[in-house]
Amino acid sequence: MAKYLSQQQGIRENVNFLKNRLNALASKMRANPERLRVDAAFHLPFRYKAMVDDTKGIIVTPLVAADAVDRAIYGLTALYIEPGSQHPCETLRVPGVIALPTDWIKELDYLNGLKSEIEALIGQIEDQHERSKVWKTWQYMSGLQAMRKTWIANGPKKVTFFWESAPSVLNKTAKEWIAHYSDYLKKLHGHIPKLNELDEGDKSRKFVLLIAELQRDCKPNENIAAFRPGQPHVRARVTFHDSQKLMLRPAPTPIVYEYGDSVPTIIPLSNWEPEVSTPKRETRKQMISTVPVVDGLWFYRYLESYRYG
Asked: For residues 110, 111, 116 and 122, what is the CA-based torsion angle, rounded to 10 degrees?
């Protein structure tokens, strides 16, 4: 990774470079559509709220001909949200499978490396507010789209698209969470501030409150769950003609492969319907309190019978 005066300066330089290279690649693709082949592309509507309404389904529309080509190119190269239709918390979703010539794949592979560098620089900025300020350098820029890498598959045999909406749960003891966020606050402020030292809008206030609540109400060895409800997202399972192991990962934007490869079998993405909780997920929900330790944070105490298991 190159050296920069600051992480912010490095991010700005790399994003501007990325923007220019993606714009150039998009122009080449649109000027030479005969050089690419869209074997599948699906349109997903944008949502208008930060969170998915898990009581509503998602309609998936297969795209064909010029619509498929236009949207697939957009899915590979877009960095900005669509004002008026795309919520700032939502990233673009154009799942699909595209065959591209070698030079365009090499360019996407190079840009994947650049996105990894941007992601690493962002990760070095611990304060969420400072991260947000960097992205505001460019109006309507989507930081998540700028860091999202293109999936390049080598000789895919079969591509299966599907929805996943499993919740994420990370367990640590109260003592471990206190230590984690104490370190975070010390790095951010040089010490663990008291609540009255922080402005009302300072997001680190919530972590000061979290530490105080855990110290007051919990024993050090009590399990505390960082529980986030699952949001429906698109994934793909890819098997290959050679001995490569199958790959399973998120696939919100087109998977690309060499134009000369054979067309893989494609199992298309279906509509997403609100799920009925499985017994395992329902049991886990029943183990965790419905009231967060601190409003606005995803931390929950277990019910009495499960706190130390």
From this structure: 150
Ramachandran quadrant class, 231 (left: phi over 0; alpha: psi -120 to 50; beta: rest): beta
How many residues are present in the chain?
A: 309
- 190 Cβ contact list (under 8 Å, min separation 6): none
Cβ-contact 96, 68 below 8 angstroms: yes
Residues with Cβ within 8 Å of 121's Cβ and at least 6 positions away in sequence, in order, are 1, 4, 7, 10, 11, 14
Structure tokens at 202: 């300072």
Q: Which amino acid is at 289?
A: S
- 175-218, pLDDT tens digit by residue? 999 999 999 898 888 899 999 898 887 888 999 999 999 999 99
Residue of 35, 116, 26 lying closest to 73 (CA atoms): 26
pTM, two decimals, is: 0.76
